[in-house]
């Protein structure tokens, strides 16, 4: 059984956190000793902190003592100097914590192509370190410190009750624009007090990220800085010993996916300028890739996103987006339904328009006025594969925020 | 030598046109007897008129007598009834022109998933047919009749002077939203008075479309109705006899590409809500596909598009878009420059930021205030491949237009 609990990363035994935010510039530190795994952006332009963290985890046997993350400057496309700065961040807190810098994860988010203000960061380290704590409030400060255009801090934690004992998984994340993660979100730091080997952590994390962070789209831009780190403190005493489909591994995977999915939805809902969350499930696909392609194309489509912003019952755009997604299907077999979670309206059934009268379109309009819109499409191929993607509407405020970001 | 001339499609001998626009609903007819070729949307959801036109050209030996195009309703996702309506459009003008309906091209643009008002169209056919003419004014009426959210009618024509004699190529197009053609634009009708076999026409059209219409992005949505038809009336007496690299075929290809490129740029510039045209050239790629992927990713990126709208000198987003495009390159080798056609500013040279001081960013801001912004990136791979893509900025008006389209 899985149950939501409070406290974010600090809900997990062995984790301390804190953060500070001064204007555009924020800094969070999370300490937690344990086996660890990471997934990172697939952008060819990789930010310096991503390079440093990846190398650390690849060469240190999969272990972290702490994570340091700054907001306001991405330290991306900054060349040798950027690498020096990212290493300096690691070294600076490693010294103060009395650990080797190779056990530090470094993350950055903000403007690309600007030199990091390393002195500012060192100053903020001195403010944050003495305040590290295992409290809900400390978690909140860390969440806020990594926000950029985010309006809402993002954290989630669960407790899993299993026959082997209880364990917890908690995480925080930030992300609002430049969001179509290709294997991480902007930044997410996740912790568990289960005891898990780093190879098992890596496998579980990859699988969970695939179904959660990789299924959200705000604007289709994949960041240079995406990173998701998972650390297991082992403090609960529950040991996940095997990859194989033991029920305990499944319970761990399930708890991890639950946390990542909630964080992913929070990111999509807080997409830059967004007023609504879109959840799109595509079923009846031949392959999972087809289901993923169609569901993501729908939540990525600027035309679908603007229609949802304006409560415009222009559902043809949803069908068109599936059509160009690359997914294999026959238009004469598809089924489309939209709902607000309570009321639903059938728009297409087995390729035939259900009803396009004013009453149907009015009902659709009222459904589209909800805060969360559910789109359900069945491709009707005879295949059984399914996927769910999350996105948000495209609004005046998205344009406003991004037409004037650096200045 | 190629020279711009007036008159759009009516600049070509053997072509008559006219159109009518009443509120949202418009109808254009173009008559021209000759060998013909078409390219169509690759969207899995294919509109009825695309199906009918494609079948006509595939079974009639590649020949057209006339094209009929309506705006206001896409006749897409309309099932058997939609096919009946598209065929009725063809039959209705075929009867009046005294030709076989299989020699008619049918095209539609507008809302998806709504039944065509075939009676309205028949009424408009009666208005348009008696007014068909070979004049510039008649061409203008046809251009206007196919517009939907377009603000500007789009036509272009050239005369090519060759040793074998002079010939002309003229075309019209419409398109403003749902624009990332995957082999056509929304709608484009192109004519030449050269005499060309339909297989040669098809080959020339495919090649030209690849470098022009397929290189524009307004919002990344590929329409269900994209279609580009090319008809050769042969009236100039200039005969293009071969595919091979004869200089005459090259001159024809060149004239055709010139017309299509101008139409493509007009579509990008008139993108929904757009205030600026973006031309992005990516050079130094290993493969042409890499150059295409990178240049299109840059003009497609909502973050690049909003930054250009707001004159925000946030050039890191351009580098990031190339990074996630799938193109192969090393970030330490790239070069980036932006210009307004007169003044230019170097931002990155061989992977190093040229200068990021206030003077550079201010110069970049003033360049970004121009009506056409040129982005030049060299991937520095040692490869020689290059590609140019066109797009537009993303503005409040794009959101406004699309949040309230059907209502």
Textual characterization of the structure:
The structure is a homodimer of 407-residue chains. Chain A is α/β, with parallel strands linked by helices. Chain A folds into two domains: 266 residues, 4-Layer Sandwich (L-amino peptidase D-ALA esterase/amidase); 127 residues, Ubiquitin-like (UB roll). Helix content of chain A is 34%, strand content 29%. In chain A, a hairpin with a 2-residue loop joins strand 6 and strand 7. Chain A is globular and about 70 Å long. The N and C termini of chain A lie far apart (49 Å). About 1% of the residues of chain A have low confidence.
The percentage helix of chain A is 25-40%
Q: What is the CA-CA span between the terminal residues of chain A?
A: 49 Å
Query: What Rg of chain A do the Cα atoms give?
Result: 22 Å
How many beta strands in the DSSP annotation of chain A? 18
The CATH class name of the largest domain in chain A reads Alpha Beta
What is the count of distinct domains of chain A?
2
By helix and strand content of chain A, what is the structural category?
alpha/beta
- Which strand-content bin applies to the residues of chain A? 25-35%
Gross geometry of chain A:
globular
Average pLDDT score of chain A = 89
CATH topology of the largest domain in chain A: L-amino peptidase D-ALA esterase/amidase
Oligomeric state, counting identical vs distinct chains: homodimer
Low-confidence stretches of chain A: 181-185
Order of helices and strands of chain A: EEEHEHEHHEEEEHEEEHEHHHEEEHEEH
What is the CATH architecture term of the largest domain in chain A? Answer: 4-Layer Sandwich
EC number (chains A, B): 2.3.1.35
Pathway (chains A, B): Amino-acid biosynthesis; L-arginine biosynthesis; L-ornithine and N-acetyl-L-glutamate from L-glutamate and N(2)-acetyl-L-ornithine (cyclic): step 1/1
Family (chains A, B): Belongs to the ArgJ family.
Subunit structure (chains A, B): Heterotetramer of two alpha and two beta chains.
């Amino acid at each position: 059984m899985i149950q939501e609990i409070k406290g974010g990363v600090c809900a997990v035994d062995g984790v301390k956190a804190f953060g500070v935010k001064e204007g555009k510039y924020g800094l969070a530190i999370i300490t937690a000793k344990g086996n660890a795994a990471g997934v990172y952006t697939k952008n060819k332009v990789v930010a310096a902190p991503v390079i440093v963290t990846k190398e650390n985890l690849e060469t240190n046997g999969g272990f972290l003592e702490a994570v340091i993350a700054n907001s306001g400057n991405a330290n991306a496309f900054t060349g040798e100097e950027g690498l020096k700065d990212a290493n300096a961040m690691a070294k600076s807190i490693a010294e103060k914590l009395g650990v080797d810098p190779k056990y530090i994860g470094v993350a950055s988010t903000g403007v690309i192509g600007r030199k990091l203000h390393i002195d500012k960061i060192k100053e903020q380290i001195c403010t944050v370190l003495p305040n590290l704590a295992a409290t809900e409030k400390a978690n909140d400060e860390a969440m806020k410190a990594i926000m950029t255009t985010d309006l809402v801090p993002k954290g989630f934690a669960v407790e899993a009750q299993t026959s082997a004992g209880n364990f917890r998984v908690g995480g925080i994340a930030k992300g609002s624009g430049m969001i179509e993660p290709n294997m991480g979100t902007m930044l997410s730091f996740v912790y568990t007090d289960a005891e898990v080997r780093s190879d098992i952590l890596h496998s579980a994390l990859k699988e969970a990220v695939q179904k959660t962070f990789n299924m959200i789209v705000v604007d289709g831009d994949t960041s240079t800085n995406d990173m998701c780190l998972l650390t297991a403190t082992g403090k609960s005493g529950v040991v996940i010993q095997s990859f194989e489909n033991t029920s305990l591994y499944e319970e761990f995977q399930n708890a991890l996916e639950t946390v990542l999915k909630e964080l992913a939805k929070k990111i999509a809902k807080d997409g830059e300028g967004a007023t609504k969350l879109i959840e799109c499930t595509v079923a009846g696909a031949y392959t999972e890739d087809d289901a993923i392609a169609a569901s993501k194309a729908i939540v990525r489509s600027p035309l679908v996103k603007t229609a949802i912003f304006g409560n415009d019952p222009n559902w043809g755009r949803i069908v068109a987006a599936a059509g160009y997604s690359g997914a294999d299907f026959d238009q004469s077999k598809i089924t489309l339904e939209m709902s607000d979670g309570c009321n639903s309206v059938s728009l297409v059934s087995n390729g035939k328009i259900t009803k396009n009268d004013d009453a149907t379109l009015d009902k659709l309009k009222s459904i589209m006025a909800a805060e969360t819109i559910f789109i359900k499409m069945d491709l009707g191929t005879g295949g059984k594969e399914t996927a769910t993607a999350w996105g948000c509407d495209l609004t005046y405020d998205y344009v406003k925020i991004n037409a004037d970001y650096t200045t």
